Amino acid sequence: MDRVLVGVLHVDDLIYGNYKNVAWHSNDGIEQFVPSKNSMPTEGDIGERKQVTSFKLEFSIPRDKHLLLKVIEEGIYPNHPWDEPVVQVTEAFETRKHG
Fold this sequence. Notes:
Helices cover about 20% and strands about 15% of the residues. It has two helices and four strands. The protein has helices at about 1-10, 65-75; strands spanning about 25, 30-35, 50-55, 55-60. A two-stranded antiparallel sheet has the order 1-4. It has a two-stranded antiparallel ribbon with strand order 2-3. Helix 1 runs antiparallel to helix 2 (about 65-75). The radius of gyration is 16 Å and the shape is elongated.
Protein backbone atom coordinates (compact mmCIF):
# COMPACT_ATOMS: atom_id res chain seq x y z
CA MET A 1 0.00 0.00 0.00
CA ASP A 2 2.77 2.45 0.85
CA ARG A 3 4.28 2.21 -2.63
CA VAL A 4 0.90 2.76 -4.33
CA LEU A 5 0.01 5.69 -2.07
CA VAL A 6 3.42 7.30 -2.61
CA GLY A 7 2.92 6.88 -6.38
CA VAL A 8 -0.48 8.58 -6.19
CA LEU A 9 0.97 11.39 -4.04
CA HIS A 10 3.59 12.06 -6.73
CA VAL A 11 0.68 12.86 -9.05
CA ASP A 12 -1.69 14.66 -6.65
CA ASP A 13 -1.44 16.00 -3.08
CA LEU A 14 -4.85 14.47 -2.16
CA ILE A 15 -6.09 17.69 -0.59
CA TYR A 16 -9.26 17.54 1.51
CA GLY A 17 -10.19 20.86 3.10
CA ASN A 18 -7.16 22.15 5.00
CA TYR A 19 -5.35 18.80 4.90
CA LYS A 20 -3.19 17.09 2.31
CA ASN A 21 -2.13 13.47 1.74
CA VAL A 22 -5.61 12.36 2.89
CA ALA A 23 -6.33 8.67 2.27
CA TRP A 24 -8.20 5.84 3.96
CA HIS A 25 -7.49 2.13 4.00
CA SER A 26 -9.53 -0.80 5.27
CA ASN A 27 -8.52 -3.60 7.57
CA ASP A 28 -7.25 -6.73 5.88
CA GLY A 29 -9.84 -8.77 4.00
CA ILE A 30 -9.80 -11.73 1.64
CA GLU A 31 -9.78 -11.38 -2.15
CA GLN A 32 -10.11 -14.33 -4.50
CA PHE A 33 -9.39 -14.85 -8.18
CA VAL A 34 -8.48 -17.42 -10.82
CA PRO A 35 -5.65 -16.30 -13.13
CA SER A 36 -6.45 -16.85 -16.82
CA LYS A 37 -3.97 -18.21 -19.37
CA ASN A 38 -3.10 -14.67 -20.53
CA SER A 39 -2.42 -13.35 -17.03
CA MET A 40 0.90 -12.85 -15.26
CA PRO A 41 -0.14 -13.46 -11.64
CA THR A 42 1.97 -12.17 -8.78
CA GLU A 43 0.18 -14.70 -6.58
CA GLY A 44 -1.29 -18.08 -7.52
CA ASP A 45 -1.14 -20.30 -10.59
CA ILE A 46 -2.98 -20.13 -13.93
CA GLY A 47 -6.37 -21.83 -13.72
CA GLU A 48 -6.24 -22.30 -9.94
CA ARG A 49 -8.44 -20.37 -7.51
CA LYS A 50 -6.37 -18.31 -5.09
CA GLN A 51 -7.33 -16.36 -1.98
CA VAL A 52 -5.04 -13.64 -0.66
CA THR A 53 -5.11 -11.06 2.09
CA SER A 54 -6.05 -7.70 0.63
CA PHE A 55 -7.23 -4.25 1.68
CA LYS A 56 -8.93 -1.28 0.10
CA LEU A 57 -7.20 2.09 -0.38
CA GLU A 58 -9.51 5.07 -0.89
CA PHE A 59 -8.87 8.73 -1.61
CA SER A 60 -10.63 11.72 -3.11
CA ILE A 61 -9.58 13.86 -6.08
CA PRO A 62 -11.36 16.70 -7.90
CA ARG A 63 -13.62 15.70 -10.78
CA ASP A 64 -11.09 15.98 -13.59
CA LYS A 65 -10.79 13.19 -16.18
CA HIS A 66 -7.19 14.09 -17.07
CA LEU A 67 -6.14 13.98 -13.41
CA LEU A 68 -8.02 10.71 -12.87
CA LEU A 69 -6.24 9.03 -15.78
CA LYS A 70 -2.89 10.39 -14.62
CA VAL A 71 -3.44 9.08 -11.07
CA ILE A 72 -4.36 5.64 -12.43
CA GLU A 73 -1.72 5.38 -15.18
CA GLU A 74 1.20 7.07 -13.40
CA GLY A 75 0.37 6.69 -9.71
CA ILE A 76 -1.32 3.30 -9.35
CA TYR A 77 -0.41 0.96 -12.23
CA PRO A 78 3.40 1.28 -12.12
CA ASN A 79 3.45 0.98 -8.31
CA HIS A 80 0.96 -1.84 -7.77
CA PRO A 81 2.38 -5.38 -7.63
CA TRP A 82 -0.56 -7.04 -9.39
CA ASP A 83 -0.88 -7.72 -13.10
CA GLU A 84 -4.43 -6.25 -13.05
CA PRO A 85 -5.07 -4.06 -9.99
CA VAL A 86 -8.72 -3.53 -9.09
CA VAL A 87 -9.44 0.19 -9.52
CA GLN A 88 -13.00 1.33 -8.92
CA VAL A 89 -13.95 4.95 -9.56
CA THR A 90 -17.04 6.30 -7.84
CA GLU A 91 -18.41 9.80 -8.20
CA ALA A 92 -19.62 11.21 -4.89
CA PHE A 93 -20.66 14.49 -3.32
CA GLU A 94 -18.45 15.52 -0.41
CA THR A 95 -18.70 18.22 2.21
CA ARG A 96 -15.94 20.48 3.43
CA LYS A 97 -16.16 22.35 6.72
CA HIS A 98 -13.11 24.42 5.72
CA GLY A 99 -12.04 24.99 2.14
